[in-house]
Write a structure and sequence with these properties.
By secondary structure, the protein is an alpha/beta fold.
Length: 336
Amino acid sequence: MHIVTLGSGTGQATVLRGLQAYDCRITAVVGVTDNGGHSGLLRRALQIPQVGDTRQCLSALAEETSVWGQLLRHRFTQSELSGVSVGNLILAALSSISGQFSVAVAEVCRAAGITQHVLPVSDVSTDIAAELEDGQHVTGEWQIIQRQPRTDVARLFLQPPVRALPQVLEAIAAADIIVLCPGSFLTGTIALLLHEGVSDAIANTSAMCLYVCNLMTQPGQTDGYTAKRHLDTLCQYLGHRVDGVLVNDGMLPPELVDYYAQHGSQPVQNDLTSDEAAVVYSADLVEHPDVETIRAYTRPQGNGMQVGLHLMRHDAAKLAAQIMTRVPTSPQGNRN
């Protein structure tokens, strides 16, 4: 069983962590356009693809107590180094040495003993850009998120246009199931799909395509989005339907809902019905972290670093169980 996950950052890392418990082959295809946080600083300094989301996926697949597992997860918290990720520095250094981000990722996988495959969607540094309803163009994830006023996005595109790596398209073609992971929806999930070749590869494979809907709306990206609007927007950029969508119906931690509300984020309302083109699967998918876990999820933020909310998360075991339950017993056929 070959599962290909497409995503960026925390949401994809959660999916990978859960799937590790199952006997399956995994290829994680990771977005490279985020320009926030410590990896955003490295992007601007070195003109390389974003490394942080790939580092999170490597961390999820590495042995937790190993030296490499600890290195990939470690962030400094002191003075000028606050927020600096050791794993990001390693990937950036290896990218500079080899000249290719994908080679750097492969080297870390080999050194860390990671047997699953992790592929950046591209070796080229590119940005997600938006054309707004009033005709203005905004380039960069955090520039889109922080735009004022929050004029609606009319169209998303990559600046410059970039083709996906050949091995990414080969992995999608060979998949049994494709999982579109939760995460930064417009600037992460959609940005990845905009790499040339990706949506066509998904359309032409017989693999089941499953979308995991976000738990919360994202300020500056999906304000007011319901589950249906998430799905409709996804299909718009894919150019075709997906086979199924996983939506949470479990109770969200009230203290986190209140905290998110202070930052303009609300629970995604499930307004999907049986009339949708995709099959709708509802389940309790929520993690209920204790105080210590929430503290561990809180990212240190240094000067010049933009950091989003990462406290409300899917439960890795629950999510993986639902994904494995949906694995088809026969080919799905091409989509249209």
